[in-house]
Design a protein that fits this description.
Shape: elongated
Distance between the termini: 11 Å
Structural class: mainly beta
Number of domains: 2
CATH class of the largest domain: Few Secondary Structures
Helix content: under 10%
Number of strands: 19
Number of helices: 2
């Protein structure tokens, strides 16, 4: 195999990432990976120390009667990965305090009410949120359950919908969302007497100011799946760990300032196939034959 400069990879792209999911989640099937898919959550920005792997094992050296080394028996193998989280987000905190419960205090759920007047006989209406995006057009008398499903699917937010179909729809946002922008509604109604639609904020949301987390002993298992995405330009090296545990090992002061960041050791365990992990690599050079 000849020397080729393009085959020298420095996996230091700022987009490298650690993702996690519950065991049994469907792993990504295609490359290059930009997101492992449904059920995976990213740990957020990582520090410039990168993502490193170690290979640890015990060795027992065996000698013959003349004192010559004839064999080395190896056991107790480990392949831990380490990374540092710059963000303090829900994913990072969940790994740091497995099994803990987070309670959001001081929050008020935002409530917005859509009112339809003029008793339309047909047509549709559309809801567009300036942050979450558009909901597909809905029938003038869509049920509250169907509208709730459409909103939750389009916005990926746990918005509850109550009210009376064809007359009013009350949208209650999650309390944790705090104060959110008001949605915009428009209509294409038919029939009725001057049919119209309007939306008002009936209860403004209030952002929570206190988060309480109940932390247990921390000795329980936190087995999860992990995906590590190492990137060098257009080349990705993805590590899929089907059975692993990220253990918080403490905090340190970031070298570039006074920021305190959390350190984790990710220990892969053997999965049902007897593998620590699977490597997916979209580097064309890897297609060459080595015998």
């Amino acid at each position: 195999m000849p020397k080729e400069n393009p085959n020298v990879h420095v996996y230091s792209d700022g987009n490298y990432a650690v993702w996690t999911a519950v065991i049994g989640t469907t792993p990504p099937a295609t490359l290059p990976p930009t997101n492992p898919g449904a059920g995976y959550f990213e740990c957020g920005l990582l520090s410039d120390t990168g993502i490193t792997e170690a290979h640890n094992m015990n060795e027992t050296k065996i000698y013959d009667l003349a004192g010559r080394l004839v064999r080395i028996a190896r056991n107790q193998e480990e392949r831990p990965w380490t990374f540092e989280c710059l963000e303090e987000n829900a994913v990072q905190m969940g790994l740091q305090f497995p099994g803990s419960t987070l309670t959001n205090g001081g929050s008020t759920a935002e409530v917005q009410t859509i009112t339809i007047t003029g008793t339309p006989a047909g047509g549709t209406f559309t809801i567009v949120h300036p942050v979450f995006g558009a909901v597909p057009a809905q029938a003038f008398n869509v049920t509250t359950a169907a509208l709730q499903t459409a909103i939750q699917t389009a916005w990926d937010e746990a918005v509850l919908v109550t009210g009376t179909a064809g007359t009013s729809y009350v949208l209650t946002y999650p309390a944790a969302a705090g104060n959110v922008a008001q949605a915009i509604v428009s209509q294409a109604f038919t029939g009725g007497s001057s049919p119209a639609i309007a939306i008002v904020t009936t209860t403004p949301g209030v952002n929570g100011i206190i988060n309480t987390r109940t932390v247990g002993a921390g000795t329980g298992r936190n087995l999860r799946q992990f995906a590590i995405d190492l990137i060098d330009g257009g080349v990705h090296k993805r590590i899929l760990i089907n059975n692993g545990e990220a253990v918080w090992t403490g905090t340190k002061t970031y070298s570039g300032g006074a920021a305190t960041i959390s350190q984790f050791t990710l220990n892969p365990f053997l999965d049902v196939n007897g593998n620590y992990y699977t490597v997916l690599d979209d580097d064309p050079a890897m297609a060459e034959t080595f015998v």
